[in-house]
Amino acid sequence: MSSKNGSKSAPHAPSSFRVEVAGKPGYEGAAGAQVAAQFAHLGMALPAEVRVCPIYEFTGRLTPREVEQAAKDLLADPVTQEYRVGESGMSPAFMMAPHWRVEVWLKPSVSDPHESSVRKALKDLGLPAPERVRCGTVYKIVGRLSAAQVERAARKILSNPVIHRYVITAP
Known about the structure:
Strand order of the largest sheet: 3-1-2-5-4-6
Order of helices and strands: EHEHEEHEHE
Mean pLDDT: 88
Low-confidence stretches: 1-11
CATH class: Alpha Beta
Shape: globular
Number of strands: 6
Number of domains: 1
CATH topology: Mth169, Chain: A
Structural class: alpha+beta
């Protein structure tokens, strides 16, 4: 590619976007309660609340508008869920009491079984296929838990250390 002055312009670098999906108030789902109940198996007090949310990471030559369209038309159910791209969109679905955040992702060496489905669905929507799609899960845990307890729960309940990596963010 050349610009008007004859110099070559750099190709568009791949972008990375994250889309998080959460249940609207009243539609948080039973998965959080099931996860919370498992804390007792580790001898811990039950958290006051646990929300389980899918998260997607797209890497490639996508525009913010295309990612927004994918989130709206593919990743979130408009009746029961809301989404946000990046940290934007602080709707009621994403507002919670101070909480621990545990993101669980497949390790880079593990094939993501959802990647091909998401890539195909994006193509069916007429959107460009990203170079990479990763699908993960966010656990938002409200309760009086120490960092060591959350770390133990992440290792024993929320992930399989053989295939997953996780990141814990304190309240």
